[in-house]
TrEMBL record, chains A, B, C, D:
GO terms for molecular function: dioxygenase activity. It comes from the Bacteria. Keywords: Dioxygenase, Oxidoreductase. InterPro entries: Cupin_2, GDO-like, RmlC-like_jellyroll, RmlC_Cupin_sf. Residues 108-174, 279-341 form the Cupin type-2 domain. It holds the Pfam family Cupin_2. This is NADPH dehydrogenase.
Length: 375, 375, 375, 375
């Protein structure tokens, strides 16, 4: 009986599988297949790799390339039909998952003054990072937040949320970041449209910022035990000031310069259970050393210009550009200016890595910590 | 200019995307693709489903079908070449991931008296559940544990581990359970072969059981802060006794009868960060109500016989059979005996669901909580 | 045989002890005493009171009374001989413990420009609240912090600490708060003089403020697992701003107006394991309702004037006055101004109450929540 | 003007107070006293001792001395009048607090078959350790537990609890342990008599033992977030077995032999928030080294005979004797038998020391770790 060709991942290393196909074994594999089973030694080396090999590739999306297309979507589709006018970032290695890198989704959304998106909730966790425009706002479970450039807002797992731009504003563009691919692949995503399509605002505007955004102070009696930060909005001005203050007290990280994590003020932990976010400042002339770690990262250039080297390839960036670093990819950053600092916003799946015990990190040891460029 | 056909997932529901393809839009989509981007509204309804739809299907693997094949592997391949002689369970919907269900791997391994597998470590977390034979043992980071039928042992993320059967034992078969598919897809798996291929045993045999397996008592001064249970082995005799004792004190769960979780005695939490495990007892004649929840489950029948109904399909089982319940699949269990209890061992990814805030549960409300059978 | 008179706390209530002394019992009590024992029923009602009855009394210390005495200490004793020139607050009910209320110590310390106190460490936890003067500083484990009026600084359990006033400053007065009486009575106090009598400053001035005092942001990689807040200094300006911001988002507490707790930014919990601290704002014209709770409190008036009613007695206060509220004493606060807010700083032993499961609270139900004055 | 004599604790050590009384200062002290204040330097050295000095003294209470007196109380007072017939242990240094050592109370209670104590609740936490008799039981919040010799049961802070002996039992004697002195001195004690004087039993007998007393297993869905262990009873048989098992896996502590803590199975932490408990086994011939630590301890000899040396004084003990070790007192233990093990039950305030950051420990370094006897 003819048996079909099969995968067989052999390695000639002690402790690894190295079994040659024989007619008898191939027949045996056929029998196993009929029982919804297989022989581990044919796939063991594949499913137990020596180290992670990301299916994502490093990509830099230049804002000057994308911006016109984002704006054009306003002419092409109505918000009613499109739901949201978003151009999503599609990593060549992750197209089947519509992911920008790893299990993270990202897109650029545009909204015109007076427009309002319908309210919904989902198990995916989301954030927005404002790129340009005036008058943007987000409502999360009845809490309305006003937003300006480089502000960052959460719309966590399970919350009713909606976005809009006030009628006296200007066209606004922001970056969305979500864990939709992760939650889908974990087979745990639910989606609900708000029964009224819009929420009512039930609190003073920016109340959560006023309540939870005070350094070293917490409202007495204000309990919070949800899995995400009650400080739903992180504004740019205090963030940039924090970086400058922290820079006075630290030498910084050799890999990241002056790096601060956005945190849940109640726990000191990440802003959401599946997505972390940070802002880092590369000081004038700063050039970091390379390292790599598990976890997928999306960067947005909040300020300045420079370049990053990712797995030996150079990516030049300036304000508003977006790029990604796949899991276990070497990366280092360079501020191109000798007089101005540069700031990179990132969001990532580090909370997943930490919660599941999967974080690993390694420094690039050779060449003074700098990667040679790959041609 | 000709544009290629594209996916476009439309829904005629307020708040959902419903944009018709036009030549202009198709050309626009081509331009976006060249920028490694896409229009969200073409895929939004796909990536934001109303509820999870598992790619796994319910499967029951009968031990009487598999056992002969497992034993035959001993004749077909040597341990040196195969690494381990394991027949893995291959869910028809998850073949590309070699998964038994969701992101969980499972296989049946056989080992003969005097055989020893080489020691290794990986980022995946693993467990074994002993199905038959005498003399099996596992060594984890120098702690040696002897194992008998229905014993359950951990070989967690990052630990050196190896299995063997003592030379005065009998051929042993056990079920392996791992999160290899999950750790691979999270791009965080590392694999290391022990430099000496074998560990030395550094502690009295079963020392962790003697140290941590005492109800309500904990060794003074014995700190433990690792992400997994120091009680690496969970023996059958005290487990079965625990179920009988707990049965005296509880009415049980309507969905699961008398269900106990194996826990980390230091925290009361799950045995490992990514895999939970439980043993449940269906009392004589017990027939549970259906429910569904996020998280993927693999069951092994530790004792007795009966059937389960999964998404409307009946699966009859007896001792040593294995079956799976995919995420968000309805399921209910029936003990076929009016006089004997039945016990089901399960392992699952509930710790992932809980750590990431993704656990959801729903009771089957109609028909007294019992699913109608689907023909 | 003559027996001595003994205490015997009888109550004629079911479930309470009510045993009459008899010659036979009195002889029995004598025998027990010789065995270092006693009969519980003679003291049961004493040691099991129906509710707490504080041995502290409410006291208000007027700054205008104390200030001259504090300043005079500079002429009377040298810092070398006195160690520190401090006038401590001595509650009439707690003189044997040198406590201001309950198990809390407080004192007013004065220091002249150029003076430096010697460095030491102790198991007691301490804080300072600056009342007047320029140029004060504190050094904690090598971290130097500059201090102005209404700033609040921690010198926690086990840290090396010292205070000084820079030579270009002015005479400074501050309030010290400590749990010395508690740690003494728990028989756990240790005291060490620094081997060099002074510490060296090992970090940039105010580095901990720059590092940890940023709302919603935390330095990446800066671990902190000690039992106290790394944000050792809480400055007045951001504190007052926080109260004003929070006031926009809250109706406030009926008992406390706009009340915020100083917290450990890493955990969201109290600043030290034994002492909590808060700042509260009574809005113009605000008059709170009375409540009582376990835990002892010391208040300092940071801003404004008004009065508090404590167990039916009125205490009028203005800026810099200090008063105490004993455990389980009814208390309510009134801002005397219709146009200005008033701010009260407090420190307390609430972390002890919470850690030991002893916090209880009760609202004053009668008379619209306002206590009748006791003449 | 005549001034009264005052305490003044001078030390001639740099960094310590050393101010001589002068007429001017004495007059100044009088003025301060009128303001409810004092000069710190007169008391600083007293309230900041170099190390703890316990007001408790080591005491051994011989059961052969106390037993007859305990039994005699049955003739002398009725349960109705006495509430409970208890002989409490009265440390000579702690008589004003009715404490056995530090802030811990202990007493020996007797109850005859058919007797029932009235149900009550209090903020103090309590435990009982059964010394002799058959048929004793305790009910805690409706959970009834049967008790035999060396069993240990909790009646935590805030729970309704009552004790009794079944009518077919024998006279029972047990040791009570409580933190009444601590909760009183923290001014946080509340006492309530049950409105019906007795509780109804609402669960199967020993249900909490059946539910929570299983090694490595926890009932699915059984939440517990209270501050004390749901495993209210700790039986002797599994405790002694645990010590024997653990002894196979450990060399033991040089200070305590084979020491296990009773724990809350949900958290791995202490059984109650204010009282910890342990059982330790001194192996045949074992003689431990001396150490000292903060925290007060009461020991009961559960098995065997031997002696302890406490602050240089020898205390010989045998089964049922009770002794105490004050805070920071040196102590070491000796098993007098070369063939039998000895077991010591202890309860203590270590959870208080740990929760408040006050635990300190020191080994006795001289003389091979053995204290010289003080004559």
């Amino acid at each position: 009986m003819a048996t079909k060709a099969r995968e067989n991942h052999r390695e000639d290393v002690a402790g690894r599988a190295n079994v040659e196909d024989t007619p008898e074994l191939l027949a045996y594999y056929d029998e196993l297949e009929r029982l919804e089973a297989g022989a581990l030694w044919t796939v063991a080396n594949k499913i137990e790799p020596w180290q992670p090999k990301s299916s994502s590739v490093p990509v830099l999306w230049r804002y000057e390339d994308l911006r016109a297309h984002v704006l054009r979507s306003v002419e092409l589709v109505s918000p009613e039909k499109a739901g949201r006018r978003v151009i999503y970032l599609n990593n060549p290695g992750r197209r089947e998952h519509a992911a920008a890198v790893g299990w993270l989704y990202s897109g650029l959304q545009v909204m015109h003054p007076g427009e309002v998106a319908s309210a919904h909730a989902h198990s995916a966790s989301a954030l927005r990072f404002i790129m340009e425009g005036e008058g943007a706002y987000t409502i999360v479970d009845g809490h309305k937040m006003t937003l300006g450039a480089n502000d960052f807002v959460l719309t966590p797992n399970g919350t009713w949320h909606e976005h809009g731009v006030s009628s006296d504003g200007t066209p606004c563009i922001w970056q969305d970041g979500l864990d939709i691919p992760l939650v889908n692949t974990l087979e745990a995503n639910f989606y609900v449209v708000h029964p009224d399509l819009q929420q009512s605002v039930g609190y003073p505007v920016d109340d959560m910022t006023h309540t939870w955004g005070n350094p070293g102070l917490r409202p007495a009696g204000a309990d919070w035990s949800k899995g995400y930060s009650p400080l739903l909005k992180y504004e740019w001005a205090p963030t940039y000031e924090a970086l400058q203050r922290y820079a006075k007290a630290t030498d910084g990280s050799p890999y990241d310069g002056v790096l601060m994590n956005y945190v849940n003020p109640v726990t000191g932990g990440p802003v959401m259970q599946t997505i972390g976010a940070s802002m880092q400042m590369l000081r004038p002339g700063e050039s970091t050393r390379a390292h790599r770690h598990t976890g997928s990262f999306i960067y947005q250039v909040a300020k300045g210009r420079g370049h990053s080297i990712i797995d030996g390839k150079r990516f030049d960036w300036k304000e508003r550009d977006i790029f990604c670093v796949p899991s276990w990819a070497w990366h280092e950053h360079v501020n191109a200016s000798a007089s101005e600092d540069a700031c990179l916003f990132t969001f990532n799946d580090l909370p997943v890595m930490h919660a599941l015990g999967l974080y690993r990190e390694e420094a690039f040891g050779d060449n003074g910590g700098r990667q040679p460029l790959v041609s």
